[in-house]
């Protein structure tokens, strides 16, 4: 699929809709989501992994329309809170095609999951096993998986690496806590262990760590077979497939990943003497990120020291990723054709701290001026979902574009919204 990463300066439309008109109609800052690109990415995954269960990781970006698109494209849903579960359920998504994650599931998370009948729950700590079992009735066994730490270091930034021992997720393979949890689950008559899960990290652009994870997970499945005589039908490898934010950056190609994973899984299972389990994958970013564009209006341009600062009407409240992970974006001038060549600029937000930088040292046309529109491509994942109300700047709207028309999915958060939650004094 075509990614918004390839938009040139001056490019006017996404999904057949002019970005400049979208900015005029819905005001800025705003997020724009290309429905067709989301659907195309879902189809690419379904085609690349025809025998696997592809779950979209809702944490990347969730709203009712997104739930509907994911459902219509035949994917399942990975949710990690009662809130995500509730929204997906309210939008009509079948709970049995959802998987619940979380290292610290609240009583409400678990109660909601069992009440709605979520497909599988991924166990992340020993104490959770009895908590889930206590909520099941005699009539219904709950399907669970156990999250394992395969000891693989991968991911675009230290804060999103989850495959190694020194982080909070999963149960260790090396100290026996994964094996112990598996035995406990197998001992609970109200729980059905469907398989093992791992998620090694996020924004991974190399296939190799996934292949190592497959070998280790199949090794563990073989030990489960030896010790308990149980053949587990599923292996969930999580998500983490990396995307390019700037032209020329690497991305993980789902088709190449599928080919290598399937081959490795078959080979590892042959060595272990196990039947090949059904694969489950959980891409979030790879489906949502390339389909989104963030739109900002330039409010101020100035030189300070050696830097040309271009300040826009959003910032770290609508995109905390540069501040949190050092994420790099490539803003483009849109809505007019530039009349000057590129200069190095630093695009900053409107928030009251110096770390509120959206894109440091990026090329922008030298005639950039207040009133200009900037578009930040590949803004569809972990931006809407991680937005905050810092400085009581309301969160931006989400606009879907499709076949030449734009429609509002999430409205702008107003000052009244922000005031209404404040019930004290
Ligand atoms: N499955 C599990 C269990 C996960 O924890 C995650 C992401 C995913 C799937 C989806 O990963 P993806 O395919 O989207 O990489 N806020 C960070 C990313 C945190 C990812 C957390 N877990 C960011 O903006 O980069």
TrEMBL record:
Q: Which PROSITE patterns would you find in this protein's record?
A: ODR_DC_2_1
According to the UniProt record, list the residues that bear N6-(pyridoxal phosphate)lysine: 59
Task: Tell me which UniProt keywords the record has, alphabetically.
Answer: Amino-acid biosynthesis, Decarboxylase, Lyase, Lysine biosynthesis, Pyridoxal phosphate
Q: Ranges for the Orn/DAP/Arg decarboxylase 2 N-terminal domain?
A: 36-289
Pathway(s) annotated for this protein in UniProt: Amino-acid biosynthesis; L-lysine biosynthesis via DAP pathway; L-lysine from DL-2,6-diaminopimelate: step 1/1
Q: What is its EC number?
A: 4.1.1.20
Q: List residues binding substrate.
A: 285, 321, 325, 353, 382
Q: Name one GO biological process term.
A: lysine biosynthetic process via diaminopimelate
According to its UniProt record, this protein's enzyme class is lyase
Q: What role is this protein assigned?
A: Specifically catalyzes the decarboxylation of meso-diaminopimelate (meso-DAP) to L-lysine.
SUPFAM superfamilies attached here?
Answer: Alanine racemase C-terminal domain-like, PLP-binding barrel
Family (UniProt) = Belongs to the Orn/Lys/Arg decarboxylase class-II family. LysA subfamily.
Q: Which organism is it from?
A: Streptomyces violaceoruber
What GO molecular functions are on record for this protein? diaminopimelate decarboxylase activity; pyridoxal phosphate binding
Q: Where on this chain does pyridoxal 5'-phosphate bind?
A: 240, 282-285, 382
> Known PANTHER family for this protein?
DIAMINOPIMELATE DECARBOXYLASE (PTHR43727), GROUP IV DECARBOXYLASE (PTHR43727:SF2)
Residues annotated as the enzyme's active site: 352 (proton donor)
Q: Which reaction does this enzyme catalyse, per its entry?
A: meso-2,6-diaminopimelate + H(+) = L-lysine + CO2
In terms of CDD domains, this protein maps to: PLPDE_III_DapDC
Recorded hits in HAMAP family, A to Z, give:
LysA
State what protein this is by name: Diaminopimelate decarboxylase
Describe its assembly.
Answer: Homodimer.
Cofactors: pyridoxal 5'-phosphate
């Amino acid at each position: 699929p075509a990614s918004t990463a390839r938009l040139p300066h001056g490019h006017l439309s996404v999904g057949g809709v002019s970005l400049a008109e979208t900015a005029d109609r819905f005001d800025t800052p705003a997020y724009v989501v290309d429905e067709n690109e989301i659907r195309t990415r879902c189809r690419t995954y379904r085609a690349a992994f025809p025998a696997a269960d592809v779950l979209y990781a809702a944490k990347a970006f969730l709203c009712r329309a997104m739930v509907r698109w994911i459902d219509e494209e035949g994917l399942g849903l990975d949710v990690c809170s009662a809130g995500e579960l509730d929204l997906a359920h309210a939008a009509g998504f079948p709970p049995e095609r959802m998987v619940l994650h979380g290292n610290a599931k609240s009583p409400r998370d678990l109660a909601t999951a069992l009440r709605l009948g979520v497909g599988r729950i991924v166990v992340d700590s020993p104490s959770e096993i009895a908590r889930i079992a206590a909520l099941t009735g005699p009539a219904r066994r709950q399907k669970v998986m156990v999250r394992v730490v395969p000891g693989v270091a991968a991911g675009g930034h230290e804060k999103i690496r989850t495959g190694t021992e020194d982080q909070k997720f999963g149960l260790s393979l090396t100290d026996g806590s994964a094996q112990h949890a598996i035995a406990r689950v197998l001992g609970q008559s109200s729980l059905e262990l469907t398989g093992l899960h791992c998620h090694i990290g996020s924004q991974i652009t190399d296939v190799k760590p996934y292949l190592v994870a497959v070998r280790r997970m199949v090794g563990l499945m073989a030990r489960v077979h030896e010790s308990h005589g149980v053949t587990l039908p599923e292996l969930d490898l999580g998500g983490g497939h990396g995307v390019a934010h700037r032209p020329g950056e690497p991305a993980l190609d789902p088709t190449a990943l599928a080919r290598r994973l399937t081959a490795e899984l078959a080979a590892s299972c042959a060595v272990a003497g196990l039947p090949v389990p059904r694969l489950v994958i959980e891409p979030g970013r790879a489906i949502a990120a390339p389909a989104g564009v963030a739109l900002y209006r330039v409010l101020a341009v100035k030189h300070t020291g050696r830097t040309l600062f271009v300040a826009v009407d959003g910032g770290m409240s609508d995109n905390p990723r540069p501040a949190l992970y050092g994420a790099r974006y490539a803003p483009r001038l849109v809505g007019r054709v530039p009349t000057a060549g590129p200069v190095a600029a630093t695009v900053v937000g409107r928030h009251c701290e110096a770390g509120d930088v959206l894109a440091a040292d990026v090329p922008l046309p030298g005639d950039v001026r207040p009133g200009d529109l900037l578009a930040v491509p590949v803004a569809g994942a972990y931006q809407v979902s991680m937005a905050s109300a810092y400085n009581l700047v309301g969160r931006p709207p989400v606009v879907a574009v499709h076949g030449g028309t734009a429609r509002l999915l999430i409205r702008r958060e107003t000052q009244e919204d922000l005031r209404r939650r404040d019930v004290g004094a």
